[in-house]
Amino acid sequence: MTTALITGPTGCIGAATVQYLLDHGVQHVVGMSRKKDFSRLEPEYHDRLEFIEGDITVREQVQSAISSIEPEWIIHLAAFQTPDCMARPLQGMEVNVIGTRNVVQAAYQLGDKLERLVLASSSAVYGPREMYPNETVTTDVPYRPANLYGFWKVCNEGMGQAFHRETGIPTVCIRLSTCYGPGRDLGMTSAPTAMLKCAAAGEPFRMPYQGREHFHFVGDVGAGFAEAALTPFDGYGVFNLRGITIHTETFIETIQSVAADLGIADLDVGIAQGAQGMPFVNDLDAGTSLAAFPNMPLTSIEDGVRISLLSFREMAEAGELEAVYNPGG
């Protein structure tokens, strides 16, 4: 029986990854998290995910889980986001660095039983867009994180590289930027999803920032991490997740157009007066990602917006939609 272990399985990206794995032949998916919250998982997957309550910052709990399961694939997603790292830096370091080290250290004990280790990285390892003169930003450009979160992701990539060098086990780090769609409800870049929720609920919303932004639809993110685990691969690699860069105004115009097609009227969405510039890099080059993992999907902005609005409208009609923006911290 094939087995995958995911840390952070109940988050937005984790839930999408769980569902993709189960839909694509993985017989046994185990998730480890501090609390059992299946609200982001579709109901048909609830009984198919084995859940282990555990804290990645507690080394003994991580080692016990991994040694008892003996997974072929480990996908490590659990982490604090940027605002929480800024607000609680010591706890953020414990989760994002020590937690990752605990997962990597426990993976050593599996030996050849482990076929792949996949670690979540971030576009936060890059510097500002103007630092990179080329048309797209490739993974071989210099690091220049703007905050602790980015530096900790650099550290985690280093742990992944060292793990591969010492064990020979294929190891992949995936860098991503703004994830949007159903299930995204926390973090600074959850603003585009909050706008979609407000559009579906008939509530006003103003984007707190503006500029060019690199978008990934949530289903593509889950599929991307799963494909990074399942697709044959040898060695160590860092890859930008496939995505699309557009301007905030274009994203808003797409919401307005798709909402009109769906009969959603009286939209009141726009950019906040005095909105700051988008602080994160964009134009992430995914050429090497597509070459290594050709089944990584790429949903158009129009289709991602449509899927999101339909989902959020259904939730609103059922009285289950919380149309708020929670940047975290």
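Above is the first protein from milestone M3; the second protein from the same milestone is given next.
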Amino acid sequence: MDSVTYKPKQKRSEANLKKIVDAIMKLVEDKYFEQISIIDITTEAQLSTGAFYRRFKSKEAALPVIYEQFQIQLRDWLTEKSKEWQKMELSELVYDMTEGIFRFVDSKKGVFRTIYLNARLHSDLLQPQTLEQRINDFKFLASFYTRFIPEQTPHYEESVRFAIFTLVNNAIEKCVYPEITPASGCPQNFEESITATSEMLAAYLTNKLAQ
């Protein structure tokens, strides 16, 4: 009898967890995480507050699961884009990757904002592998440029990783915090920022290859 009743409970528990995570990820599209209450989350998820507290002791305790779900979405997107990036020449690759990352960040800016801030405020709540995953994502993006590296090109791999850092940082600042510095000091709009960033990075990488 126990085995018969346990399985539905487990399924319901997993379904409730998904509802909570989906609710938070939807709510942060329009509100700061700090402004969202447990009632907001349970109302959006159509669950009782008891169902929430059976999974998490606070909304901050849900952050590792939010990061995990975001990581899945990011890896799915990178996997899909990688099929195209493998076939591109340098200038096309730089522009397409720049545009893709800008648009991906813009589509997930609420989640990015939550991660960006709470990774600093609640670092004790993050899973140990989170930082390693971010580093691996940077390495994965940089790997598409390795085929352009002639033998014995000095420090080109480090230059590529710096270019990826600059790209991601520009996208986060422009998409997530466009109204405050440093993004507010940039005269380009969203579309112009994509073009300007890709042109800057293409020139930088081409120059490094020529050295």
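Note on the second protein: The first helix runs from residue 2 to 27.
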